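[step 3/7] fold_predict: job queued, chain A
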Amino acid sequence: MSSQIARKVVQSFRRNDSGTDGTNDLSPREREVIELLARGYLYKEIAEKLAISVPTVNTYIRRIYEKLHVRSRSQAVAIFTHLPMDPKN
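[step 4/7] structure written:
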């Protein structure tokens, strides 16, 4: 491996270490939604609180899951709140 390629590999790892949880990629509105989700609000309650429709909440939740690379509410909340995740979920 050349020194130039090795340098690129090291730089790639450094970029991945800063913000590995993906929460930095969330929009301000997505942050609002996941914060309410973490507080235990239901989708309907989130919609009412933010004055948006339930399908819009579903869209935000789907985008949050994609950005955080998770498949469940508990995984998303664990990453957002920096809690250790249960490998069973």
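[step 5/7] annotate
The chain has a mean pLDDT of 82.
The chain is about 65% helix and 0% strand.
exit 0
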